[in-house]
Amino acid sequence: MEAVTSPQQESSGPITRGCQWLKSLPNKFCDKTMEIARKTKKLGQDDPRRIVHALKVGLAITLVSLFYYFEPLYDGFGDSAMWAVLTVVIVLEFSVGATLGKGLNRMLATLVAGALGVGAHRLATLSGRQREPILLATFVFIIAVVTTFIRFFPKVKARYDYGMMIFILTFCLVSVSGYRDDQVLEMARDRFSTILIGSCASLIVCICIFPVWIGEDLHKSVAANMGKLANFLEAFGDEYFKVSEESNENNKSYLQGYRSVLTSKSSEETMANFARWELGHGPFGYRHPWKMYLKVGNLTRDCAYKVEALNSYLNSKIQSPAEIRGKIQVPCKRVSLECSGALKEMASTFRKMVRTRSAVMHIESSKKAAEELKSLLKTNLWEEADLLEMIPAASVASLVLEIIECIDKISEAVNELGEAACFRKSNATVLPEQPDSIQQETVQQDSNTAMPVPHCVIVVAE
Amino acid sequence: MEAVTSPQQESSGPITRGCQWLKSLPNKFCDKTMEIARKTKKLGQDDPRRIVHALKVGLAITLVSLFYYFEPLYDGFGDSAMWAVLTVVIVLEFSVGATLGKGLNRMLATLVAGALGVGAHRLATLSGRQREPILLATFVFIIAVVTTFIRFFPKVKARYDYGMMIFILTFCLVSVSGYRDDQVLEMARDRFSTILIGSCASLIVCICIFPVWIGEDLHKSVAANMGKLANFLEAFGDEYFKVSEESNENNKSYLQGYRSVLTSKSSEETMANFARWELGHGPFGYRHPWKMYLKVGNLTRDCAYKVEALNSYLNSKIQSPAEIRGKIQVPCKRVSLECSGALKEMASTFRKMVRTRSAVMHIESSKKAAEELKSLLKTNLWEEADLLEMIPAASVASLVLEIIECIDKISEAVNELGEAACFRKSNATVLPEQPDSIQQETVQQDSNTAMPVPHCVIVVAE
C-alpha cells in the first residue's frame, strides 16, 4: 500500500504503521465527507434548479408507482404497469425540451414498432410452428441492422437517436415474445398505453412544476457569451496600457471569462436540438428560429478567437515598451471600449428580446476611433522606433480593428434573428426624450429573468 | 400548400394545379430516393465500420433471442429472458469503450439496486400490509431524489450517468413489484442473470468481431489534428507570399482543414472518457494515460487559435503590398515550413508511438529562422514604408513567431505522454547510418493502421 515511506516510518514495525494508518482513517474519512458536502452545496447553489429537478423526479416516480399499489388501477394493466414507472425514470430529463424529445421519440417508436411487431408475428405464425422462429429471427435481424445503420445519419442522430433504439427494442419485444405468448396484440397495446401514461406523467411534472426551458437557457447563454467578450474588451485597454505592474493578478479571472466561449459550440448545438422540441413558452413561439442562434453563436466564437489572440499579447514575453504603447493608447482604448459597449448593448437588448439601434451607434463610434487609429499609424510618429519593439503594439492595433468587423457581423446576425423572431422594436436609447419607452425599458430590466414579453408586441416609437 | 404561385399558375384552375403537383410527385420521390441512396453510400464509404457495427447489432440480438425459441434455455428464465434481448439493444455500442462502460454500469447498478430493493421490500413487509405502500413509496422517493442529484456531479455524469439511471430503475422495479409478487428475490436474481447474459453477449460480439477501440480513434485523432495544422502551415507560406492571384480557389479546402481542430474539445473528452473503460489492446495498456491526450489536444487547439488568426490575414481586405511582404518572405516561409515539418514529424511519430528527437530539430531550425526574421525586422529596411501598410505583414511575422512557442509546448507534452505511455524510443532520423532502426521504421510505416507495436518494447539505439 505504502510504496514511499519516510525514514521514521521505516524504523517502526509494520504493526505500528498499520495502527497509524488506522488512526488517520477517521480523519481522512472526515475530510472526504466534508469535501463531498462542500461540493454538493456548491452544486446546489450554482443552479438551484438541480435540487428542484431531483425532487420532481422523486415525485413523478412515486406518483406513477401508485398504479401498482391501488387495486383498481393495477387491474387494468397488471405487471405491465411497471413499464410506466420505467418510462418516468428514463424520460424525465432536466429540461422540457429533452423530456419532450425523449417522450415523443419513445411514444412514436413504440407505436410504430408495436404495430410492425404484431404484423411480423402474424406473418410468422402463418408459416407454421417449425419455420416461425427462423422467420422471426430474420425479421429481427433485418430490422436491427437497418435501424442501427440509420442511427448513423447525422440528422437522425441529433433528434431521433433514442426513438430508433426504442424502435428496435419494442419490435424485438413484441415479435419475439409472440413466439411464447399468443396475445401479442394485447401486449403491444399494454406496452403502448403504459408508456403513454409514463411519458404524459413525466411531461406534466416537467412542464407544470418549475419548468426548465432549454430554449431560454440557450437564449441566455448566447447573450452571456457576448457579455463575456464585452467584459474582456472593457478590461483589456486598462490592462494592456497600464504603466506599473500592480494589480496584475487581481483581475486575471475577470480577463479569462471569455475562454469558455471558445469551446461552447457543442453545448449550444445540443441546446438548440432540444429547444426545437419545446412548445411555445413565454416570449418564445413554437417555431422560434433556434437555428439562427447557432449562427450568432458561431460569429461570437469567431470574435472570441480574435480576443484569444489579443489576450496572448497581454501575457507575451515580447512587449512593446510603454512609450510605444502610449502612442496608440487613446484611440486603441476607445475602440476597445466602444466594441465592449456595442457587445454589452447587444447582449442586454438581445437578452430582453428588444431590437434597438444602440449597438450600431457604438459600432459607428468605434469605427470613427478606428479611423483615428489608422491615421495615427500613418503619421511618422514612429520613425525613431525599433520595428521589432513596435510589432506587438502594431499587432494589437490590427487585432482591435479586426474585432470591429467581427462585431459588425454579430450585430447583423442579431438583427436578422431579431426580425425572424419578432423581437420587440424599440429605440429608447436613441431617443431618450420619450419618457414612455424609457419607463417600459426600466420595467423590462427589473423583471429581467422572468422575460414576460408577450408574443411580438411591436412598439414602433419612430 | 402553395402560398407563392406564379401568375401563370394563378390563371389555371385548382384542378389543373393539383394535376401538375401530382405529376411532379414521382419525380420528387425519385430525387429524394436518389439523394438518400447517395447519402447512405457516402456514410458507409466514409467509415465502413458503421456497416460492420450494424451487422454486429443484428447478430447479437438474433443470437440472444434464441433463448426465447429454444425450450431448455427458455425454461431457465421464462419471460425474464426478454431482458437479455433488451440489454443487447441498449448496451451494444459502436466502440468497445462505450459498450464496456454501459455494460459494467448496467450490471453493477442492477446488482446493487437489486439487493437494496430486496432489502427495502423485506423492511416494508415487516410493517404490515397497510403501511407497506407508504414505506415503499418513501424509499422510492428518497432513492430517486438522492440518485438524481448525484447525477449532476461532473465526474459521475462523465462515467456513471447510465449506471445511476439503471440504479433508480432497478430499485423501483424490484421494490415496487414486491408489493404484488412476493418472489422478489427470484425476480432480482432473474433480472441480474439476464442482464449479465445480455451484457456478456454484447461484449463478446463487440470485442471479438472487428472491434472498434475508441482509444485508438482518440490516438489517431490527436495525431491527425497536429497533421491538419501542419498542412495549413505548409501551404500558408506559398499562399501568403504568392504574387499573382491565380489558384486562389483550388487549395481553399486544403487551407480550411484546421478549422475542425478548433471545435474538437468535446469529442476528444468523450473519447477519453470511453477509452478509460477499455481493456489493454494492441499497444495500449489498460492504464494508458488517456488524460494526457487531453493536454496534448488542448495545446494543439491553442496552436489552432493562432493559426486561425494567421488565416484571417490570408483573406483580409487590408493587405501589405507585395514588395513589403517580399522583404520578410524568406525567413517567414522558412519558419512556417519548419513549424509544419515539426508538427508533421510529431504527428507521424506520435501515431506510430515512437519517441524521436526529429521534431526538436525542426523546432531548432525554426528558431534559427526566427532569429533571422527578428534581425531582419530590426534593420532599417522599412524606413520608407508606410506603417499602416506594414502592419499586416508585421502581424503575420509576429504570429509565426508565437506559433513556434506553441509547437514547443506541444512537443514537450508529446514527450511527457510518450514517457508515461512507454512509447518506443528511436532516433532513426537523427542517426540515419543505423540500418536496423531504419528498417524497423519502414516496417512500422507500412503496417500503419494496425499498430502492431507490443507493450513498451524500448529500442535504445543510443
From TrEMBL, chains A, B:
GO biological process: malate transport; monoatomic ion transmembrane transport
Record key words, sorted: Ion channel, Ion transport, Membrane, Transmembrane, Transmembrane helix, Transport
Transmembrane segments: 51-70, 82-101, 134-153, 160-180, 192-214
GO CC term (a single one): membrane
Topology of this chain in the membrane: Multi-pass membrane protein
Localization per record: Membrane
Transmembrane keyword on record: yes
Classification via PANTHER family: ALUMINUM-ACTIVATED MALATE TRANSPORTER 10 (PTHR31086)
The name this protein goes by in its record: Aluminum-activated malate transporter
